[in-house]
Amino acid sequence: MRRRAALAALASVLHGPISADAAPIEPFDFVALGDMPYGPDLIQGPAYRQLIDQINAMNLPLTIHVGDFKSGISPCSDAEYTLQQQYFQRFAQALVYTPGDNDWLDCQRLGDAALERLQALRQRFFAGRQSLGQRPIAVERQADLSPAFGRHVENLRWTQGPASQGLVFATFHTVGPNNAVDDGHADVRAEARVREAANAAWIAEAFTLAHSRRARALVLATQAETLVYPDLRERRRGIVREGFARSVEQTLLPLADAAPFPVLLIHGDGHQHIVDRPFRNARGEPIAKLWRMEVFGDSQMHAVRVRVNPPPDPHKPGDPGAAPFAFSPIRNLMSPDPSLRSRIET
Fold first, then answer.
1. pLDDT of residue 176 exceeding 80
2. pLDDT class of 228 with cuts at 50, 70, 90
3. Second label for 255, Cα 20 to 30 Å away, from 18, 90, 198, 209?
4. 331/333 Cα distance (integer angstroms)
């Protein structure tokens, strides 16, 4: 027994942690939602609270809100931010949030300074190294790990499961419709360029972390729809918008194309629940291991339960396993539009 234990210890030193093939990692379920609530709290609040109650009843450890926690013409006041922070704290488990354009950029429509509102968001929602929600989880912030991007406290990452062969999660901060690169204010355009550089660096680091930990899967979350479709009849042939060239086209796509593990990109912006694999590599070929899921939103105040089915070991050739992700709508009967309109392509 002693010799066997010594050999196991030596193998751990020489080769890293012993494979967990004998004890497969269990699937991990979490919830994703975004682009809600839109409209006055007196009108939309009851349906939003109903959805939160449904999510809490599922007792899942994590919910991700992909931004736009109000409409683009709703007030951008501190009182509105306080209200949305209180809603985030209604979630019984951990809540991770990444900002959307409605939350700060579109505040210009109401006469507010976009960058001042962005700073207010950062101070309120990303002040510490943990998530929101009643049972927060520890997160790492890009600002703490990369001095060059010291303002970007909203870009987060965390892991789920064992240190080796677990799951890696990360958020990065994009906003629709074109990431503010063509905004009418020079200071906002300058911020967009720096934020895109931060996003690209953070995505690359997420892949590096996933490789180093032999991750079973990588899950990324952001707000914006990054694709534009010249021909709406052919939704599969999307082109990455100019504002996301550095983070998505030049960083995410080639890294996902080369990765041994599956990658899921979750976003909002379009208000239609979509599951597909629309991204293509530089050769025009589909990137089979890169999935995207767009959440419901606006009048469809529903959420999505996401299951990560870790493949046996994606780092081993010829070991594809089952479909890595599964998606189940969480229907809110109090939604302004209680129908479920989804487009699922596998």
1. yes
2. confident
3. 18
4. 6
